[in-house]
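Handout for the seminar on molecular recognition.
Each group receives one record of this type.
Step one: identify the two inputs.
Step two: read the structure output and locate the region that could contact adenosine-5'-triphosphate.
Step three: write two sentences on what you found, then compare them with the reference statements printed after the record.
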Amino acid sequence: MSQKATEPGTAGTEPAVRLDDVAVRFRSRKRDVTALRDIALDVPMGEFVAIVGPSGCGKSTMLKLVAGLLRPSSGTVRLRGDRVGGPRHDIGYVFQRAALLEWRSARRNILLQAEMRRMPAERARRRADELIEMTGLKGFEDALPHELSGGMQQRVALCRALLHEPPVLLMDEPFGALDALTREQLNIEMNRIWRETGTTVLLVTHSIAEAAYLANRVVVMTDRPGTIAEIIDVDLPAERAYAATMERPEFARVTNRVRGLLGAGAAAD
Ligand SMILES: Nc1ncnc2c1ncn2[C@@H]1O[C@H](COP(=O)(O)OP(=O)(O)OP(=O)(O)O)[C@@H](O)[C@H]1O
């Protein structure tokens, strides 16, 4: 499958991700499920988009479409101008569970990405060092996963996803299994990492606060079949001090709007 970057001359104009009139239906002998319907979304390069919505509304399905792990039943999905026709290597993917190899050190788990993509060893080592520094893992490079806290394991997973410098990072509830304080810490780090790497991020989250703190835009989905109820612009600077951001009227406006769309009690916080 084609892995070419955006055509010369169109760079900067093509969105990083484009979903055009996308629907996904799962058919089995027992039931037919329409997971997504009428999905149209453009994500410009470098943007941070959060996707929130009720359980089962198709959020993970949307990320799988972008990664090329799933094909739409109708409509088109484009990544940097290319129609997605199969698994893509120019993305990073972070899941709720870090899914690290227990017998490999943190560093060697991160370098797994390089082995899978046959990255030049020297470049991979240099990038791993930068990411270890950036995510505060310095001093724990040689630790095995069971010697790391949940937050540290998730940092390793993030480094692994970023090692090949993907232009698009897909994150599926990456901080959902962490305690509140660790989650807050990783939110702060995520804001910094996004600014430093310039990568485009699509984040699925059940936390309205996390979505509003991290994103430029929040995509709010309806119950199944998942459609886009509204896309909310977050008018906050890219660099966001945590507590101060939470106190800003714009933060309250966004979180209240999301809550209003999802209905009382529909989301985790
Ligand atoms: N491979 C599959 N085969 C059949 N049905 C599927 C498949 N994958 C997802 N579904 C269905 O599609 C719908 C959307 O699933 P998806 O995992 O995308 O939802 P979600 O919004 O990410 O949910 P959650 O917030 O609970 O993680 C669900 O009803 C799910 O059962």
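Reference statements: Residues 180-197 form the longest helix (18 residues). Helices lie at 59-67, 106-117, 121-134, 150-162, 180-197, 208-214, 242-246, 249-262.
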